[in-house]
Amino acid sequence: MLVARLLGTTPGGAPSIRLDLARARAAYLQEDPVTSPGDVREERLDALLTAVIDQLNSTDPRLNDVMESLVRHLHAFVRETRPTESEWLTGIDFLVRTGQTCTEHRNEFILLADTLGLTTAVDDVNHAGPAGATPSSVEGPFHSPAPARENGAWISTGPERQRGEVMVVRGRVTDTSGKPIERATVDIWQADDAGRYDTQDPAQEPGNLRGLFTTDADGTYWFRSIIPSSYPVPTDGPGGELLTALGRHPMRPAHIHYRVEAFGHRPVTTHVFVAGDEYLDADAAFAVKDELVVAPVRETDPERAVAFGVDVPFADFVFDVRLLPLGEVIA
Questions:
Q1: Which phi and psi angles does 61 have, rounded to 5°?
Q2: Ramachandran sector of residue 178 (left: φ over 0; alpha: ψ -120 to 50; beta: rest)
Q3: Among 165, 206, 257, 293, which is most exposed with the fewest C-beta within 10 angstroms?
């Protein structure tokens, strides 16, 4: 009887293949999910899932495929975990508040995806490449347009410059065979020595600790800054609430963000992490890769300091970027 109520009939009396959602829901409510036999409940849930999937009729096949997979996984999640109505409404409220927390300079959904490892998973399935190419990593929620700067410029223009340890960041952009790439753009953003970005800190001017550089003829870029600090992801919103509820820390190891682009090459967005940071093995965003960890060399040579226009001691931070030429076969 349950299947008949769910399926309905065609004008000729045969069961209809398309399920009516309202009828499915009504049939569901007529049965007590606690006392109904398990096989009847599972049959009803199967029919409900079929009803939803049967209504995925977009003209975009990819949208249908993605939504069918999403619906199947969500229904499987409900069947596996059996959330109470109170838990379900708590989850809905969490997502609503996540959206309400988003601003022009803060995306709480990106933060949530980062801390669940989803951003790294999406990044990994989209940016496979040969061992010689620089690995990608998550963008994070703090990217914003950077001011164009000349090679060698200071990107640290705020009070952190008097507090922090000076570093010279330099390297080359090449293709995977080592050929230098001229006029590649290197977009940089980082936190200060207290772990704050300009969009979080009223003491910093917009564009502080950011820079958009262009490589010269041999692919070289370089700039001066201060060593960033490890820092907590924002914990004053739903993302932070979830970390606390799960007993997790919110810390990210010290890093510099890169977005590198060049004509005829696949762009890469990545991090470079400071070796020795205590959170390298426990990044709240699961973004650390061994190839992206750099150990700064503490320089005390006055002549090298003069060459870079800094005082001793300073940290020499070298990171080369290798881009994959478009059309190159990915093994």
A1: -60, -35
A2: left
A3: 206
